[in-house]
Amino acid sequence: MALINHRAREIHFKIVYYGPGLGGKTTNLRILHDRLPPERRGRLLSVATDHERTLFFDFLPIELGSVNGLVTRFHLYTVPGQVYYRLSRRAVLQGVDGIVFVADSHPAREQANRESLADLEQHLTSLGLDERRQRALPRIFQYNKRDLPLALPISRLSAVLNLSGAPEFEAVAREGRGVTETLRAACKAVLSRLAAEPAAAPSPPPRAAQPAGAGPGATPHA
Fold first, then answer.
1. Residues ≥6 apart with Cβ < 8 Å to 82
2. Gap between the terminal Cα atoms of the chain
3. How many domains, the chain?
4. Which of the two ends of the chain, N or C, has the fewest CB atoms closer than 10 A to its terminal CB?
5. What is the CATH number of the domain that holds 139?
């Protein structure tokens, strides 16, 4: 759920990078943060777990322009992929405007990809998104680790994971390949959905639902 900060004249969107543990979500965010000009990005913040970190930062995509006179600001989050961080993943998904699913191309991780996608759909349902709203939620699929000698074929990954025919990208995140393209597509998909679905009357959201950096004066944009 996008948030409008009337004082700053900004509209805030939340994009969550989802996928199996050690699939490349954290690498994506680190590469993106390094590539963005310092004046257009926020601090890269980290919440450490035993095996993986939840990262998040916000940035201003100047090239995407404004929405009804409001500057767009995107907040990017990763989720911890290990099974035992299930509740943490659900918390991060609250108020999400778009999903980037980062799949691991290693053959041994095929089942982990499927389980992570099923986990995502269960969380979205538990957060109150019915089937129609889940279909409307922008999704981008990134097939990471394409440099592996035995990487799963794209056709197989797509047939198993991307049943809705969402935009998809090949990537080698540790080299930065496909990372920017994935984010650009996610941002455009979120803005396209906003244009297609008129806003509901704004009402103040619970403070806990605001993404980091949204600040005071924010109201939701459905």
1. 21, 49, 51, 52
2. 5
3. 1
4. C
5. 3.40.50.300
